[in-house]
Amino acid sequence: MSPSAAKYLPAFGQGTTWRSALIPPGLALLAGIIVSIIVSALLTSMGDFTSLAENTGFNTDGISYALPFVLLAMSLFGSAVFRFSVQAGDMGQASGSLFASGAPLLITIIVIGVLWWFTKRSELKSPSPNRGVTWIRIGITTLSMALVLLLLELIFAARFSITDSGGVADLEFSAVTVRSFFLPLLVIFVTSICARIAGHFKGSEAIGAPFLRWLVPSVLVTWTHLVVTTLALSVVAIFLIPLSFDMPWQTIPAIFINVGLILTMLVHFGGVSASAQGDMMGYDSGGFSESLTIFSREAPGQLWIGLLAVVAAVLAATLVATVTRRPYWTVVGEDKQQWTAAWKLPLAFCAVWGLLSVLAVPLRVHLEGSAAAASMLDAFGTARAGVGPLAWSFLIFALWGAVIEVLSRTLGPRLVLTVPALAKFFAGRAVHPHWGQALSMSEPHHPLIHPDAVTGRGSGAGVGAAGVAAGGAGAGSATYSSDPRSDSPAHAEPGAYPPAGAPYPMSAPPTGADSGAGSPPPPGTAPAKPFDKKKATLVGVISGSAILAIVAALIVVTQVNGHMFGPEATVEKYFSELSDGDAEDALKMADVDVPSEQRQLLANDILGAAKALPKDVTVEDAEINGNSATVSATYDVGGSKSTTSFSLHKAGKKALFFDDWKLQAPELFYLSVETPGLSKVKVNGIDIDTVDSGLALPAFPGMYSIGLAEETDLVSADEIETRAFFANDADMEGYEPALLAAQPTDAFRTEVNKQVKTLIDSCAKKTVAQPDGCPFGSYSAESYDATNIKWSISSYPTANVGDSSGEGYFDPEDSTGPNGGPAWPISTETTGEAFVTGKYDSFFDESDTFDDTVTFSVDGTAEIVDGKVVINIEGDPYGF
């Protein structure tokens, strides 16, 4: 055995090493299981989940049993899988898998946080004596937690079968995937390294990576910015989720931090995308891909309020970035490295947000199945859906890192000295040696050496001992020590640490007149001074007032946008125009798909004269889906109510802040009225031409009056009233057109009988057996070939105008006379009688006298032409 290997065996065999390596992951798993069970209980209490068992026959109890461990695996960026295999008798066999990935960040924060905290505390209590033991502890923690998690996933996977009608379905719901082992393994490994570095008195030297100390300041600044914005916007998401999405409150614990992270990306001018392809379990995705940024037309205006969180985060990150680097006034001469390291912070922002974009933000669902499964499930063999960040979003955060870098090198020092308590709160003890005394920082015992404390930058200013104990992703609390027993920690023997609890040797702290800056300022440079308190107070009050004013303005804008420019407000305004009888403005809001020749009723003079217009309008809350919305409204027209759904789409913005919702063309009700015998009627007092003795034109909701176009002595009709609504199946079902029954007057009937008598008298003057155009004739006279024929009228028939029901109308196809005017049928009420005489040649060529009596009736139409009655009598050749 080599001496180097023998050196690690005693430490490896100590109980301290095992306790330090196993207790933190055990506590992290316990905390994760407890939180996962709580979240699972909330999710399975939803009505949609319980209805799954009723509709599909799935064993939801088994799924509930496995769900906590699925969530635990996904919290470490693993994935879930639902596998199925169906044997359906004659239909054959089908199989497939549904994979889902997406970290529930609440559980993620708790599991990683507990692991980091207790690993750090364990290392503080019993530091590793050398690098080998540190790596042994990291390895034990990583492998034990990853293997136990995998074992739990295997044990608590939900496996069950369903048998129905001779078919068998084998189902499995678990988190046992390749991703669910290797990604948690990597996360646990990185977390353990960061925690050991944070807890050990030698910091990154404990793992043999002293170069990591250069990462700490940049990572800490990035971490501060991330925590401030995500925390603020996650709190906002708690209230935003149930208000903006149709989701039960039980889902909030599982997704509110995820939503807060997405909001953080949006308010930093990044973006997210949603995409789907293929049919998934019978739900047609339509194959879409959409992107959303704060500048998108469909983005809610409230997102701009999130810029306040960005300002707060930039301020906090600027304070941290300032106090983690050496002040410019402690450098002799010109600081040539002033901007040479400016790339570190943008790179840190880019790297951290890039990792979050890959691991924390995306939500993916992937369905794969056999051809038989695709046929049985009415889905494609492969389908995908997901939400994720736009590819360039992490580059935007690099620009924010550059902004913070510039602010920290310009306004940062004066800002820190103006609000030292705030800087101390955000930076903790992770400060540069020269800032320690200025901020009245205490001296903890386990430093992670600050890079400048090792390299001793600057020649004229003493560099105090300082360090940064990494927190989260390698950043945490920095400490200072003034033990003069050694000049530099770089002189320590590699692989061997000082005894536990002993201060790590560093250089002496700076001395000088300006103790607040750590050392006297070099010639030609002046230390930073805090802003004038009075001016700072004034600026603070003005800034605070401005922020409050902006918040108030945005709140007002949001309320105004919702109440005056929302889809509900658009529908209310539309009904307001209709209630005022303003058809033209209603058409401007939502034009209708009606030809111009059919728009006679869509006019102000028609709608405004209606006896009843829509009132008592009740508009329900809109159902908004992206740029589309559906609003249901109930309204009253003359005592009858109707409910209609309106579709709207977002057309952009009004005055920069307000949504512009456009109402899509509603389907209008067709006002249908039968008008037999009439070519023109009055609708609400306006003359409207009829077509085929009828009226069928689209109309806005209202009570319409229909009557005769002209009042004459010949025709009369009672005015009718009919309602119109927006067209829907309920209103159209069983609908019967109204009837405007125009009846002949007594004067009309008297005139018709007068003209009938005149016609009969003229026919009686004719000397033929069958007079043309006459209602009578003699068959006998025609058969005898009679001559010298003379007609006389014994009695005249009485004509009736209109049908036998007395309604005064008949088939609309026959309601127009030969001259194009409105016509009514003429029928016989009492028959007439005619007597005919003549001579004919007998069998013996003798001339005999002939006579015959004929009973006849009159049939035809009575037509109104230019205000006069014109009759048209059908001739009956044989008097029948």
Briefly, what is this?
With 880 residues, the chain is of the alpha+beta class.
DSSP summary, beta strand count: 31
Average pLDDT level:
76
Largest sheet: 8 strands, antiparallel
Taking Cα atoms only, what radius of gyration do you get, to the nearest Å? 47 Å
The stretches of 5 or more residues where confidence is low (pLDDT under 50) are 1-13, 443-447, 456-519, 804-813
Individual helix count: 24
Amino- and carboxy-terminal Cα gap: 138 Å
**What percent strand?**
15-25%
Strand order of the largest sheet: 3-4-1-2-9-10-5-8
Topology:
Layout: H1 3-13, H2 15-44, H3 47-56, H4 60-75, E1 79-87, E2 93-101, H5 105-125, H6 131-155, E3 158-164, E4 167-174, H7 179-199, H8 216-244, H9 252-267, E5 271-277, E6 279-280, E7 283-284, E8 289-293, H10 307-323, H11 344-359, E9 363-369, H12 371-376, E10 382-389, H13 393-410, H14 412-418, H15 420-427, H16 433-436, H17 451-455, H18 533-564, H19 567-579, H20 583-589, H21 604-607, E11 615-619, E12 623-625, E13 628-637, E14 640-654, E15 658-663, E16 669-674, E17 680-683, E18 686-689, E19 694-699, E20 702-708, E21 715-716, E22 720-724, H22 729-732, E23 738-739, E24 743-744, H23 746-764, H24 779-783, E25 787-795, E26 798-801, E27 823-830, E28 832-841, E29 847-856, E30 860-865, E31 868-873
Parallel strand pairs: 16-23
Antiparallel strand pairs: 1-2, 1-4, 2-9, 3-4, 5-8, 5-10, 6-7, 9-10, 11-13, 12-13, 13-14, 14-15, 16-19, 17-18, 17-20, 20-22, 21-24, 25-28, 26-27, 27-30, 28-29, 30-31
Helix pairs in contact: 2-4, 2-5, 2-6, 4-5, 4-6, 5-7, 6-7, 8-9, 8-10, 8-11, 10-13, 10-14, 10-15, 11-13, 19-20
